[in-house]
């Protein structure tokens, strides 16, 4: 196979997997604290539209990215208030959040549908980027790709090498025990929810400002749901999230390369476009066949409401 084609596929796979890594890491911390937030699709959409709007008006993509983070945190705070303070059902609230965020982002984004932003140039790392095949694919990327790697290592260190991460995991396993020894369970869960919202907003900002610098209604295109499935696929482990994100990104890119290659195939283009979602369903079905694996790795209090004793 042509080395240039391999480089192009690897490059596109890394870019396609980046928003999945960012959002899934946020959801991972969320769920490690025992909170199940199914609203990632809506949070990504809100982050995408606010990041695009602010970037358009300021001309600065990093201010736009901060706006996307703020939008994701704001809408996740609503989720936190409803589920942690008012004790609403987490599944129903998350689904409502997803629908609300997608609809509101479409309304807010109407004036920006015919607007395009200036592309953000990549950051080339000297010498390393000169490595054949993988150099251009991995080390001539936008800064957000490198930030996603830094976030991965930060979350990995936080969960398994810091006292705060140990406390967060304890809250996810047994909030009553964590409360009994003096930890503020609700505050910790609020912070986890805000982090998850921030990462979802940043993932949305990546899509509208860095990946395809334009706003189109529905541009999140199910990536929030894929990120949710990715956390389960990874059995709540950060390294598996990284690998899984690039696998799903590879599936997304493969169908685009097949459609653009001009190959004569018997499958309709709509089937190829649905490949990432078929892959998500198949992965979830395969994982669900082994409930022991899920029970061993999932937080024991995931999705269960908790109200500290007065």
Automatic annotation (TrEMBL):
Segments passing through the bilayer: 6-28, 35-56, 62-84, 91-108, 143-160, 187-209, 215-234, 241-258, 270-287
Chief localization: membrane
Subcellular localization, as worded in the UniProt entry: Cell membrane
UniProt protein name: ABC transporter permease
Matching InterPro entries: ABC_transp_permease (IPR001851)
Key words, A-Z: Cell membrane, Membrane, Transmembrane, Transmembrane helix
Cellular component per GO, a single term: plasma membrane
A single GO molecular function term of this UniProt record: transmembrane transporter activity
Acetylation in keyword set: no
Topology relative to the membrane: Multi-pass membrane protein
